[in-house]
Amino acid sequence: MSFVLIKKSRRATDAHLKNIFWALTVFAIMKAGASIASYEWFFADTPLYISTITANSRIMFAVIANIFLFHFGISILTYKIDTRIDYKIFPVLLFIGYMLLYVSGSIESSELEKTSRFSFGYNGAILGFVGCINLYLNKKKRGGRRKVLYGLLLLGGGLVAYAVTEGILSASSSPGTGTKILEVVTAGI
Q1: 89-98: per-residue pLDDT in tens?
Q2: Which residue windows are transmembrane per the record (predicted)?
């Protein structure tokens, strides 16, 4: 998915649209990194410091992914608004804020991921869904290409599925293997 997004992002004509899809690309890459790092069995026979590094990397990848998904959701939702605010610095500021909370010991690493998932991942997916539907309706009125229209609907559907796995299923008391597989599949969409 990331390769397709990178290719399509380069061809975008509008600078704001490029920013939107680069945020989605960073989200996809970071979420893939978090999914790969979450497989502890892959790192089972490694020294303890490798396991610690992969666990911390998974958390940081997940936090960055959720921040960029939130950035994508806000950006696509405000795409056709006349007064635009440049949100490019927004993800960096959020990440610095999260790092300050983590380094200062105000929040534990397990809570860091959970907080970012519920505050940015879930909300970013819902905002992205609403933005995709809004953009779909605008493009449909103007006679947009069918490929773009179906792509927006598919992306919106993927974001709803992702919101369900990030918000509802991950809040369950015993997320099992099925939930993990569903998270990986929806991250791939």
Answers
A1: 777 788 888 7
A2: 20-39, 59-77, 89-107, 119-137, 149-169
